[in-house]
Amino acid sequence: MTSSGGSRKELDSMVVEIELTLCSIIQGVALYFLVENARQVLSMGRASAWPYVATGLVIILLFWSRSLIHTLTLIRWPLEFVHNFFYIACTLVEALAFTHLNDPFKWFVLTALYAVVVWALFVYDMRIVALRGRDSAGPVGTRLYSMVGADQLLNIRLLIPMIFVLNVASAVAIHLRPDFFLNRGGHYLLIAVQGIGLLGYLAYVVRSYIQLQPLITKTREEWETAAEK
Asked: N or C end: fewer C-beta atoms under 10 angstroms in the chain?
C-alpha cells in the first residue's frame, strides 16, 4: 500500500512532468510561428527582418528558461490551472508578434502586450511562492523561497515594467516619426536596444538558475523527508 508521503511525491512528480511538457509544447508552437514567418519574410528578400528573428529567438529562450525555473522551484501538487492559462496566453501573444517580423510598429505594440501578460503571470505566481514558502519550513527551503520571492519582486517592480516601457516608447517613437524610424532605418536602433536588453535579461536568468540549482535539490529532499514523517 502506498503511503501518503509516497502518494504526494508521485503527484508532485506527475505535475512537474505535466508542466515541463506544456512548456515544451507551447514554446515549440511559438518557435514554429517564428520559423515559418521568418521563412516567408526572408524569402521575399527582406533582410531587415533578421534582427527581429534573432530577438524572437531570445524571447523564446527567455520564456522557456524562466518557465523551467518556475517549474523546478514552485510547482507541486495540485496542478495550477490559472498559472498554466497564463503560459498559454503568453504564447498566443508571442505567436502574434512573430507574425509581424517586417512591421516594427506592430512588433513593439505586441511585445509590449506580451510584457503585460508576463507581468500578470509574475504577480499571480507570488501566491504560489507564498504557498511553497509555507511548504518548505526547513532552512534550505526558507533560503530558496526568500531568493525566489526577491526575484519575483524584482521582475514585478523593475525588470518587466522596464521592458514594457521600452516597447511602448519604441512603438510611440515609430508612430510619431515614421519617416525616420521606418523609411530611414531608425527602427534598427530600437530593435538593437530591445535585443541587447533581452540578452542581458537572459544572462541574468541563467545566472539565477545556477545559484538556485543546489538549493532546489536540497529543498526537494526536505519535502521528501517531511512527507515521510
From this structure: N
